[in-house]
Specification:
The structure is a homodimer.
Chain A: H1 2-12, H2 15-18, H3 22-30, H4 36-41, E1 44-46, E2 53-55, E3 61-71, H5 83-99, E4 104-115, H6 120-136, E5 140-149, E6 154-164, E7 178-182, H7 188-198, H8 212-222, H9 228-237, E8 240-245, H10 250-261, E9 264-268, H11 276-284, H12 289-295, E10 302-307, H13 311-320, E11 326-332, E12 337-341, E13 347-349
Parallel strand pairs in A: 4-5, 9-12
Antiparallel strand pairs in A: 1-2, 3-6, 4-6, 7-10, 7-11, 8-10, 9-11, 12-13
């Protein structure tokens, strides 16, 4: 809320922030980023500036709510993420959770804590990134809180969306006979991070490879695209069962579906798509690209299951919508867990481990 | 979300947290705090455990959304707040923003970041406090995120409520001829904080006065009561215009209404209620109790304006409901701002300043 931004900055703020008049500060962060007309068209009656925001929801719909937090040195460092990307990705990660329910994101609240000595331009860049992502998906930022912290930055984004009542896609809905799909290539974000960390640059400097394929990996890490259209298409189809977003790597997400649904999942190695740039990078650093895919995180593609007989039809619908759908495995009832059907024909268990932050 | 709690704790967590199995940890924090039956009765279809929560809203209602963040050493220290109180107050502050719109709080999402070396029992106590407050007002905690931080604790609570469409009470709605009211005594929280800070106890120790009147001040600081019933009564009456919660002191909140509504507000010194325990404490520390009231914060009473002719009737309704309503001033059109009509008869401007955190 505006009140909070004023109050907390004004009194919690130190030298660097105090030169900014409180209203000037709010204006810089939020003004003109989403016009009143756009906000109204998107259902906002009262946005930033009162104790709470007031907004409309579509009738016959349920609320879908999530929040996602990123902390400095844990989820990002200045050598792995540019400030604008930090904002973009914080919003994208929360929006992705809404996509993973087959729902439509509508409103967001943003809470940022940062040290008193922080450079206001950094905060402005983060807000620019937040709005860039929000605007791309017509998510209205209706409130938030900006506070000082003793050390380090924390960004927490809550996104509120809606889904037709009873139609949310839960991770517990996988059924025997389903196929397992993903909506895009995985592992690129983790490879981009791997590249940036290997540069060992001083804090604040930014790694450039000069190679377009590496830049695409870095882009995947800093600017992931939440798969909202794919989620909505899957939800409206009526044939999708379980759905999850890949925030912690394919292994971890497949395990979550398997455990929540009480089923087994077999992933077929040869069917898992591998981006060319990931393949090239993995060769360069002498790693198995599958490691990035299974145990890397933050790609924010969707993984789910659907009735096998509808899979090809759905793939065509995805193609027609300019989206991708890869069938990478199937659900079995043998036991609860995840296995990999290797190219050699061997079937090996996949460990239930996920993304390891710094 | 459960996934996040697992993922982040498991991989971001250090020695102290790692002894806890991931599921055990989630269970400790959230299990049995709000039963499935209670959640369902309160509109939750899918709570903690999927990418996002799914819940119902009342038809014909608008969403009301807010978020409030507290950071360690800025909004609380171990000598000013017990862990359970930190959780209670974090929830109360966000719920109070919903009350200040005349709305009903329904769902909450909690984001906590804490250092890897944090004592898990501290986090559990904070969660207990969060649930204690949430349960008291039937707010369902449907999600959140638990992450590590490099230093210090940050708690961000988002609350989602609802209000009959078009009926939210905005701070911009004060009108000429309105009276100004508050729903309870102010300044006690700031006095309680003042007492605790004066003890100069080592970190982790807790001040006890042995005097019940001081304990009431400490209670006001650690366990504020959001005024939901009062807000709903004001909203349903149809005669209340502007409404705000007193989080930053009476002066700051009155200024917010005055500026948002483009009016002047005169507060009458003799009509501002002063709690006996505040009066006694102020005498003891040789301070003016009005300083705590005007410039202290975090009482979470409501301040608002309503049509003068309905004020007495509303006071009787409040009394019948076991609530308080003090008429402390009036709206004028002379200029935008806030003045104090002193006991002496002098009218002096009130500074537009608010609560000063440590």
């Amino acid at each position: 809320m505006e009140r909070d931004i004023i109050g907390r900055i004004r009194f919690g703020g130190g030298v660097k922030l105090s030169f900014l008049d409180e209203f000037e500060w709010i204006k810089r962060l939020t003004k003109d980023k989403q016009s009143i007309a756009v906000q109204q068209a998107c259902g906002v009656q009262t946005g930033i500036g009162d104790d709470a925001a007031v907004a409309y929801m579509s009738s016959g719909h349920q609320l879908v709510m999530t929040c996602d937090t990123m902390t400095e040195e844990i989820h990002f460092k200045s050598i792995t993420m540019r400030d604008k990307d930090i904002g973009y990705k914080a919003m994208a990660a929360a929006v992705s959770d809404i996509a993973a329910m087959g729902a439509m994101p509508r409103y967001a609240l943003v809470s940022i804590s940062f040290p008193r000595h922080a450079d206001p331009l950094r905060i402005e860049a983060i807000y620019e990134g937040l709005y860039e992502c929000a605007n791309r998906w017509s998510v209205m930022i209706v409130g938030g809180d900006t506070t000082s912290s003793v050390n380090g930055m924390t960004i927490s984004v809550t996104v509120i969306g809606e889904v037709q009542a009873g139609k949310a896609l839960l991770r517990s809905a996988a059924k025997h006979g389903d196929i397992v799909f993903v909506t895009g290539e995985l592992g690129c974000s983790a490879a981009g991070l791997d590249f940036l960390l290997r540069q060992e640059l001083p804090s604040g400097q930014w790694g450039h490879s000069g190679k377009p394929e590496i830049e695409r990996l870095i882009q995947a890490h800093g600017r992931p695209d939440p798969q909202i259209e794919a989620g909505l298409l899957l939800q409206s189809s009526g044939v999708c069962h379980a759905l999850n977003d890949v925030s912690d790597g394919l292994a971890s997400e497949a395990w979550e579906i398997a455990e929540a649904s009480g089923v087994g999942i077999d992933l077929i190695e040869d069917r898992i798509p591998i981006a060319e740039e990931l393949m090239a990078y993995a060769q360069e650093v002498e790693k198995d690209p599958l490691d990035f895919i299974l145990y890397g995180g933050e790609d924010y593609q969707l993984i789910g299951t659907m009735q096998a007989e509808h899979a090809v039809d759905m793939q065509m619908k995805f193609r027609a919508a300019g989206l991708q759908l890869y069938i990478i495995g199937y659900v079995n009832m043998e036991s609860v867990g995840v296995r990999l059907v290797q190219s050699s024909g061997y079937v090996v268990p996949i460990e239930k481990k996920g993304y390891n932050h710094f």
